Amino acid sequence: MFSCIGYAATAPDQPLAPFSFERRDPTPEDVEIDILYCGVCHSDLHMARNEWGVSTYPVVPGHEIVGRVKRVGSDVTRFKAGDLVGVGCMVDSCRTCSSCKEGLEQFCEAGMIGTYNAPDKHTGGMTYGGYSKSVVVYEGFVLKIADTLDPAAAAPLLCAGITTYSPLRHWKVGPGKKVGIVGLGGLGHMGLKFAHAFGAQVALFTTSPSKAEDAKRLGADTVIISTNADEMKAHAGSFDFILDCVSAPHDINAYIALLKRDGTIVSVGVPEKPFQVVTMGLVLGRRSFAGSLIGGIPETQEMLDFCAEHGITSDVEVIKIDEINTAYERMLKSDVKYRFAIDMASLAA
Ligand code: NAP
Ligand code: ZN
Ligand code: ZN
């Protein structure tokens, strides 16, 4: 074991504060990573404040990790010291169930092991995430990051990137499809970039009129102010696919009404309260309402390679770790352009 420092929440109503803990020494199949940057996902905030009712304290959040390999275990073949690598929302799974065998480890039948707040078979405690100096991860869950990508701007790809890339691919978003992205935050801005890169006609739904110009720069052909009923009505029955990236409770039925016959709305946002769905909205038009969870390891690598090829990264505001509590408050006010990334050099050794 070796000692590591990070930032943790110790209770739902407490700000994040410095925290020391132990990491395991790498086993033969592990990679030890010095963390350069960690993106700030709204899930970190939900979890730090126990908004999903599953948090075990202390919580060291952070699952958008980019760093350099420090050392590798004796059986590790794919990585060597100095490589630029990433770790997303998972650090392990059962590796044997049908979902794992298909590379859909996020749906592991035994439950995937989250990067934080999950039982850690190595320490007997809970996993601690990327708001920290270093992390030790089984090589099967470590991703390769192209050196051509800016490491701070690449960090959010590990969650916001794959969480939007995966459903857009699964529901075959591409040329000839009219696609909506709801909410211009961390996930939403990556959704815009990918939907545009895949060749779809893209609309952004936002509650923030001030984000309209940015939305067009990020890939939206149209911007719809979702609080304006007339603007919403003008698009009734016209969308093939809508990706809802909103973190707070809102009326999903207003979006279901905008789908074509056989259209699909997918929520990747997980607000703390359940949605109320008007069944008639789905029945009339054979529409579907679905969910999607991050993406498997092979697809995450595919997404990172796609980003390297197409020069896609996140628009980040780099912060020091002692600014994290202010960043959370700003995220709650939808005041982030469009992802915070923590510079881990700001965490004193
Ligand atoms: P974020 O950066 O805070 O963005 C959320 C956006 O939602 C805001 O920027 C805002 O966009 C919109 N919004 C906020 N409050 C709203 C309200 N009351 N009504 C309508 N719109 C509102 O959050 P994020 O990191 O992208 O995460 C979004 C959600 O996805 C969170 O619930 C998170 O836990 C979840 N998530 C899920 C997965 C998964 O695998 N399914 C993975 C990662 C995150 P506008 O200003 O444009 O309206
Ligand atoms: Zn996340
Ligand atoms: Zn499994």
UniProtKB/TrEMBL annotation:
Keyword annotations of the record: Metal-binding, Oxidoreductase, Zinc
Domain Enoyl reductase (ER): 11-342
Key word tRNA-binding present: no
Top-rank taxon, per record: Bacteria
The UniProt record lists the keyword Zinc: yes
Cofactor: Zn(2+)
Family that this chain belongs to: Belongs to the zinc-containing alcohol dehydrogenase family.
The name this protein goes by in its record: NAD(P)-dependent alcohol dehydrogenase
Naturally occurring in which organism (per UniProt): Segnochrobactrum spirostomi
